[in-house]
Design goal:
The chain is α/β, with parallel strands linked by helices. Helices cover about 45% and strands about 15% of the residues. Helix 13 links the parallel strand 12 and strand 13.
Length: about 400
């Protein structure tokens, strides 16, 4: 029997309000839910931590009439206490952090009063609220193989949080395949993440890849000129992975580039830069901007976008957006692996070490024709592989079991 997709009703659970869509996880959830709401009724239940997020929830509902938004306040002090108590269990600490009797009650109330055709659960930590509702079609958008991210973080972290990272890594590695078995389908952002989960024992038949996309109207190339000696890095610097990449640029990569091009510079753009990153602003060509209203001018004025991430899984939105704007990217193997790109043919250069980043960056800074050609290839790659509407169609097929 053919499903009438126009009549579908979706319950969505998110750990953070997907508005404003800043940061990879919020961006992905917002892109999916806002587009799904054009054809389907979406009831969103989301945690918020602060009063100003209540106003943001109302704004989200006004912007997207197809989404009803209900929030549950998550008190950080209680979440931290839950995590401490959770040390005695085998579950990931993030599951304990997001454990809430109020959220559970709201979910149960929704499920008892409304007939849903599917439940969309964003991220591993929210799976606990519907994992036993086998009467429903439940899809978990895990996004990344988190165990892989924790493993990579363990290899580079040298701070006190390394102990917590080790604990969480072991727990997540056990938890991931268990939760995949409890859901009808689990969505990952890239094949590399799906392969990692399958190697760890998750049933392959319940794994699906639904990639990210780019708003190609918003990230359309507009700049006619650029600064030949300038690079850029964009990211939420509260994230350890992005802060680590920014420090690599400031400490190692830019000094190496400036041995050949003394006037080379880089903008490190993003919210919440830690003191360790801010300390490099104004030194050796480094500018740390902090939060900006619009990243596009910073990206478009650069000769290249740097992405030396070491702690990564899935797909880096910063890479997609730079390519969409016609700015070639020099990235690490970890940043490249999930893209499904061919490399230089699709606007990217892959560097294995600091010297590789220096060589690739200097080449793009000196060779205008090369920069222009790789920029053109990047735009074509995004149009071919990372259109949001195409990804939403793929998610629909998973949500409704088509």
């Amino acid at each position: 029997m053919r499903v009438n997709l126009e009549s579908m009703r979706i319950l969505a659970l998110t750990p953070r309000l997907p508005w404003p869509p800043v940061g990879g996880d919020k961006l992905r959830a917002h892109a999916f839910l806002s587009r799904l709401s054009r054809a389907h009724a979406v009831d969103l239940l989301s945690f918020v931590e602060h009063a100003d997020e209540e106003a943001q929830a109302r704004e989200l509902a006004l912007r997207h009439p197809g989404i009803s938004v209900e929030t549950v306040r998550l008190a950080p002090w209680r979440s931290r206490a839950n995590s401490l108590l959770g040390l005695a269990s085998r579950e990931p600490l993030q599951v304990h952090y997001y454990r809430s009797a109020q959220m559970r009650a709201r979910v149960e109330a929704r499920l008892s009063s409304t007939r849903y055709d599917a439940v969309y659960v964003h991220l591993l930590r929210m799976a606990q609220y519907v994992e036993h509702h086998t009467e429903l079609r439940r899809v978990l958008d895990m996004t990344d193989a988190i165990s892989m991210v924790f493993a990579r973080a363990q290899a580079v972290r040298r701070d006190w949080f390394r102990i917590v990272n080790a604990i969480e890594w072991a727990r997540v590695r056990r938890y991931e395949p268990e939760i995949v078995r409890r859901f009808d389908a689990t969505v990952l952002i890239a094949e590399v993440d799906a392969r990692e989960l399958a190697r760890n024992g998750a049933p392959e038949k319940r794994l699906a890849v639904v990639n990210n996309g780019v708003d190609r109207k918003y990230f359309a190339p507009t700049a006619e000129t650029y600064e030949a000696r300038r690079a850029v890095f964009v990211g939420n610097l509260h994230s350890f992975a992005n802060a680590d990449a920014a420090l690599r640029i400031a400490r190692e990569i830019m000094p190496a580039i400036r041995t050949e091009l003394a006037d080379a510079s880089v903008d490190i753009v993003g919210v919440n830069p830690p003191a360790s990153v801010r300390a490099y602003s104004g030194r050796d060509g480094v500018t740390v901007t902090g939060a900006v209203d619009d990243v596009r001018p910073y990206v478009e004025r650069a000769a290249l976008s740097l992405c030396p991430v070491r702690v990564a899984g899935g797909v880096q939105n910063k890479i997609l957006e730079s390519l969409a704007l016609g700015v070639p990217v020099v990235t690490s193997a970890e940043g490249f692996e999930g893209l499904g790109a061919r490399g230089e043919e699709d606007g990217l250069l892959v560097a294995r070490d600091v010297h590789g980043f220096r060589r690739a960056s200097v080449s793009l800074m000196l060779d205008t024709a090369m920069r222009r050609e790789l920029g053109r290839r990047g735009v074509e790659f995004i149009a071919r592989c990372y259109d949001w509407d195409r990804q939403v169609a793929a998610l629909e097929a998973v949500l409704f079991g088509r």
